[in-house]
């Protein structure tokens, strides 16, 4: 039987970027101890009070169909959080609750793109971005952000890509994989291009609670952008609720109404007891989010000290998120080859920069997601290994 081109082509006929991760998991399955610095999974679990609220809600009977747009209380809480942080008037009618940020990315592109239309995204990118675009039968086109510009995308590069025909642009700040936080100049340039070329802007802001330097600016708050911006948010990173699959889209009321129709015919919403737990978590305020983020802030500071003590591996400005992007070009290896060699030699798993696009070639992404002592030991081993390779 024939499989649809849309499904068969999700990865574009190539790798999905997870090869080293899968190799590491295979080694673990064989009983080999591997230090995993690959995916953005907290080394803490969801806080007990949130789980207790989830249990309370489920035992109280909130296990049936929930309202497809999301329960009103949670939509109100998300709207209040967004308005307080951005100053943009936001109500529940601007919010739809989704099964995690990934479903929100799919839904946002479904709203922005018709089949065959071009959707732009910034390279380096989170590994699922081009596949998400292909999943809605749109055509992904990357716009490189260059290492020599600290991976801040340039408006002129986005404009050049948009001039070839495009309907949307996907951005992510704080950025996965680079850890860069887009500055005001970058975001003003992005906004100008979106308005000049009539692009939908899809802003992935799931790391907005993890900012170490500078400030997080939501492009929805820039002049003339609220009506053309779809903001993706999630409980995964801010509250260590990765497995609960609870996210949202914030956007114009008309778009949200159409996205409710999409959800009715696809996911049919998010379980009510999970929404109640998410609502409880958000209502604990920014202090709880800061507690979840603190281990990454602390490990980043320790990592900066380690990297300052050697001169082979250099750090891309680590301004936000739970990752470090390391330049290992001095070794003469690609990110892929270095990551595989490190895994084979020292059983330390990191993600090759090439997993996130060609703009990150010659880099590796390190997730700061294990306890401090093991993390620093692994980082020191990585640097020593890089120095050995550079001296050959």
TrEMBL record:
Q: Which cofactor does it need?
A: pyridoxal 5'-phosphate
Q: Name one GO molecular function term.
A: transaminase activity
Aminotransferase class I/classII large domain span: 36-375
Q: Which Gene3D superfamilies match?
A: Aspartate Aminotransferase, domain 1, Type I PLP-dependent aspartate aminotransferase-like (Major domain)
Q: What is its EC number?
A: 2.6.1.1
Q: Which UniProt keywords apply?
A: Aminotransferase, Pyridoxal phosphate, Transferase
Q: Does the keyword Acetylation apply?
A: no
What Pfam families does the annotation carry?
Answer: Aminotran_1_2
Reaction(s) catalysed by this chain's protein: L-aspartate + 2-oxoglutarate = oxaloacetate + L-glutamate
The record ties this protein, via InterPro entries, to:
Aminotransferase_I/II_large, AspAT/PAT-like, PyrdxlP-dep_Trfase, PyrdxlP-dep_Trfase_major, PyrdxlP-dep_Trfase_small
The UniProt entry's sequence similarity note says: Belongs to the class-I pyridoxal-phosphate-dependent aminotransferase family.
Show the PANTHER family listed in the entry.
ASPARTATE AMINOTRANSFERASE (PTHR46383)
Protein name as catalogued = aspartate transaminase
- What organism, scientifically named, is this protein from? Pseudosulfitobacter koreensis
